[in-house]
Amino acid sequence: MRLFIVLDGSSGKSGVHDFDPEEARAIAWFLTGLRHEAIRLTKKYRQLNEHELLLLNGPASQSADPDKLTMIDVIPAAVDVPGEAEGMIFVQEALLLLTPQEQRVVRATILDGFTEREAAKKLGISQPVVHRAKERALKKLRKYFALDKSAGK
After folding, report:
1. Rounded CA gap, 71 and 53, in Å?
2. β strands within the chain, DSSP E
3. Is 34 buried (19+), middle (13-18) or exposed (0-12) by CB count in 10 A?
4. What pTM was computed for the model?
5. CATH number belonging to domain 2-152
6. What is the DSSP letter of 4?
7. What's the pLDDT tens digit per position in 104-145?
């Protein structure tokens, strides 16, 4: 196990933390998967939006007058953006594999960026419990996604 010093200029925090290479690889792998999914969804919705704009720029009626309203002028804007909801599906599906406690720990330590100590205080449990729950959760996710990739090939 190696130690490293963290200097965070924005919060003024610094200190020595344990560095677990396996944990770092798992987190990097998880974040890479999230990033790839976000890129894929961004491309998908960009193409859908371009296609919708082509449809919405058409005339609202069959008249030949070019000054008439287009479909985009007539249809109200959508309140719910489907892209936002679908963007979190990957994360939600991954979290469903975990126990409720593991979900809370992963949200706090990985998605929200809290340290294990801060997450423990926030969740009302001890730091070793947070560490063990995070380890179990990352192991489950690695196992699931490794099997998922091998089945997809």
Report:
1. 9
2. 2-8, 13-19
3. middle
4. 0.45
5. 1.10.10.10
6. E
7. 999 999 888 999 999 999 999 999 999 999 999 999 988 887
The answer to whether 106 and 92 have CB atoms below 8 angstroms apart is no
Q: How far is CA 116 from CA 25, 58, 95, 120, 130, in A?
A: 17, 55, 18, 6, 6
What value, to the nearest 5°, has the Cα angle with vertex 96 and ends 90 and 100? 135
On whether the CB atoms of residues 18 and 116 are closer than 8 A, the answer is no
What are the angstrom distances between the C-alpha of 134 and each of 7, 29, 121, 127? 24, 15, 15, 10
Total number of residues shown for the chain: 153
Residue 92, phi-psi category: left (phi > 0), alpha (psi -120 to 50), beta (remainder): alpha
DSSP 147: H
pLDDT tens column, 58-71: 665 665 555 666 65
